[in-house]
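Discussion board: Methods & Data

I've been asked by a reviewer to show the raw model output for two of the constructs in my manuscript, not just the figures. I'm not sure how much to include, so I'm pasting the format here to get opinions. Each protein appears as its amino acid sequence followed by a line of discrete structure tokens. Is this the kind of thing reviewers expect to see in a supplement, or should I convert it first? Here is construct A:
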Amino acid sequence: MRRKNKKHWARSQKKKVTRKIRFNHGILFKVLLAIFLGVATYSFVFSNFLEVTEIEISGLETLDREEIELGVREIISEKYLGIIPKNNIVFILTKGFNQELVERFKKIETIETSKNFPNKISINIKERKLILILCSQGNCFFVDKSGYAYASVNFNSEEVQQNKLVKLIDESGKLISEGDLVLRPGFVEFIFSIADEIKENSNVEITNEYRSKSLISEEVIVQTGKGWDIYLSSSFPVEKSARILKTILNKQISLKEANNLEYIDLRSENKVFYRMKGDGAKEEKIEEEKTDNKENTGKEDGE
């Protein structure tokens, strides 16, 4: 019995030693793993290996490349929670990064950013087109093709001086703020096409300063080079209004009367209202000239 107890005691001691060794090995493994993960994390987050050193920018037309790159470097020089550097390519969150860049440079319409490991980011920028200037209550903003007021206007800037932009004055005095949807895209397109259509279809020159008594009505008053006004509505295609303008100038109003014109109102379908200086308004029911159709018909008859 004593021998059996001795064996039992020896076996028990051996198990304790084995457990102790395993326990020590487990602790050692965990310590080594923690050290490894700590070093790896430090190297991954804080080392220069994944630091963005190369910035590629494409798609620029009028924006300054150096200013964009400076803006990018300022954004990625910041830190998350004051600890994690944003210039680590892994931690550049493209959605938030793009938004920050758009907020800094209002002329950016869209932006795409891609990461090229280990240390390069590629940025493709699409600029907003300079469409028109909208002014109300003395404040003026650039408006893009989508109808958004995206930046206030500095009339001394090169982009204004070098581009003959349409200036639309809202006489209703509606408050405009940056980022507001101020014009319907279709109305923007209508405004943008007025000058070319009027000149092409009626041979009348107009200035680049327009007025609107109410943007909601989508009606525009443009001034001709001779000082009289044309009233237009987006309810009717501008090319049609221009052809009717040509018809009335050719048939209803003499050259002498044209010099005394105050305005021609083309906001009603197949009706024209006009007024001479010092006279009352007159109304004419008129059909637009269909010169092209007549010419085509004549050719067909001749054939």
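Construct B, same format:
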Amino acid sequence: MTIQTMRIFFALAALAANAITIVIVAAAIYGRARRINPFRALAGTTMWLAAGVAILATLGSLYLSEIAHFIPCKLCWFQRIAMYPLAVILPIAAIRRYARARLYVVVLATIGAAIAFYHRLMQSFPSLDTGSCSAVGPSCASPLIKMYGFVTIPYMALSAFLLILAFMYVDRINSAGSVPTLRSPDESSEATAT
């Protein structure tokens, strides 16, 4: 496959991740309003799905640097530091059915998403770049890939991190056995007393 074909594949994968994340958020809002679990069908699969996302993102970043020869900037390295462990933690957690791994996954994915968001923001507003990134390697403000006018490498990473976080939310809902409600603690204690 050509590099251009792979760039299109990664961009479409990021857009698909966005669509799935939006569906999960909408289903979560609907489920809270109706006090139902719309994710019951995904029980037992969300760690595997998140693992697939992390592995695909890791392989994608390795492809872009090792095969396409794109030199990662400083912020790209920080995003890799957050993503690469997820490609190891999530499959192990899925195999061992270790729900407590969610904590580590959420922390790493949140940090990675924050860095990716800032990086993408810097690409949209290059004036945010203080020059500290380009002093060591390539500029963080200039995108190496820009598909469809907005899909860049940090956008792809942000999409992956957000989808992983969405899957961790679904996993928590399915593990808890009950749907979190929007009621206050006083209302819930009154409901259990009656």
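Answer (T.O., handling editor elsewhere):
This is acceptable in a supplement if you add a one-line summary per construct. For B, something like: DSSP finds six helices and no strands in the chain.
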